[in-house]
Design goal:
- By secondary structure, the protein is α/β, with parallel strands linked by helices.
- Helices cover 15% and strands 30% of the residues.
- It has four helices and 34 strands.
- The strands form five sheets. It has a ten-stranded mixed beta sheet with strand order 8-11-14-19-22-25-28-31-33-34. It has an eight-stranded parallel beta sheet with strand order 7-10-13-18-21-24-27-30, with no helix packed on it. An eight-stranded parallel beta sheet has the order 9-12-15-20-23-26-29-32, with no helix packed on it.
- Helix 2 links the parallel strand 4 (41-45) and strand 5.
- It is globular and about 80 Å long.
Length: 311
């Protein structure tokens, strides 16, 4: 998430009431999570296990809960609770903006795009040409949709990320300041849910087709010409490369990468990265030939037990 204009280290420290290490006029361009952080960004870290990763990341500023040596060329913001202070920054630069009508005046809708009755289109949404948005679709603020896109009834684009910190007496929500990009030629089925990025963009690549009842988590990037069948659940921060086929009821854990042209059979559970040009099945999913051999061996177990009894 980039700020509307660059901020100084001192300005951000005053916003969150945190001590800083670095030059007061040190330039900050935005905030991001560790997996998408860029030069000029703030990244937060609140566990010693991840200190080193954050300090060595591309981030220019590390929001951290302990005084440590500041890497050359970077700055630090010292906070008792980086998670809460990261939320303060998000809320300050992307505050909730209530809507008073079904289609916001700030939305931009291209020529020949059809908006069916009972559609909600939030603030600063951009929709390209020759799209069809069916009834009861909800499009949250800031979503960008390309040309020749069709979105079927009841789908929700831009709901908050499912991202919580476990406190002793509650779960604290990490605020979502990102959004969604839907590229040209995408079709999204009925009753799908695609969450906005926490600080970046959830992206659906050109030509991808998504069936009904699919959930796509925050900051996930789906490539071009993918096919995703019904009841698939994709967690946050997943990267799915071009021309991947995912059949029904597949579950994909967070932060994984699915290689180009991989095929995942129905009801598989994905708990590790998958190679390109390979077909997978099972839970945990594996190469389909290997998995079918395992199943064949398992089916032989009763016969083996019976033979042992007869010895």
């Amino acid at each position: 998430m980039k700020f509307p204009q660059p901020q100084s280290l001192k300005q951000i420290s005053q916003l969150i009431h945190a001590e800083f290490v670095g030059q007061p006029d040190f330039e900050i361009l935005g905030i991001n999570e560790i997996h998408v952080v860029e030069h000029g960004d703030i990244v937060f870290v609140d566990h010693p296990k991840y200190y080193d990763k954050a300090l060595k990341s591309k981030a220019s500023v590390v929001l951290i809960n302990k005084k440590v040596d500041c890497p050359e060329g970077k700055a630090l913001l010292i906070s008792e609770d980086p998670f809460t202070d990261f939320n303060k920054i998000t809320a300050h630069f992307t505050p909730f903006e209530a809507s008073s009508q079904s289609i916001s005046n700030s939305a931009k809708i291209g020529e020949n795009t059809i908006i069916q009755p009972n559609v909600f289109i939030g603030n600063h949404v951009k929709i390209g040409q020759n799209c069809i948005i069916h009834s009861n679709v909800s499009i949250y603020d800031g979503v960008e949709i390309g040309n020749n896109v069709q979105i079927h009834a009841g789908t929700v684009l831009g709901a908050d990320a499912f991202y919580y910190k476990n406190r002793p007496n509650r779960h604290d929500k990490l605020l979502s300041g990102g959004s969604i990009t839907i590229e040209d030629g995408v079709e999204i089925g009925a009753l799908c849910s695609i969450d906005k990025g926490v600080s970046g963009m959830t992206t659906i690549g050109a030509g991808t087709k998504i069936d009904n009842h699919v959930q796509i988590g925050h900051d996930t990037v789906i490539g071009k010409k993918c096919l995703i069948a019904s009841q698939t659940g994709i967690a946050g921060c997943v990267v799915i490369e071009d021309e991947v086929t995912i059949w029904g009821q597949v579950g994909i854990a967070s932060g994984l990468k699915i290689g180009r042209k991989a095929i995942i059979y129905a009801q598989s559970g994905i708990s590790k990265n998958l190679k390109a040009d390979t077909t997978y099945f099972g839970t945990p999913a594996d190469d389909i030939k290997k998995k079918y051999k395992e199943l064949a061996y398992i089916n032989r177990i009763p016969d083996i037990i019976q033979k042992l009894k007869n010895l």
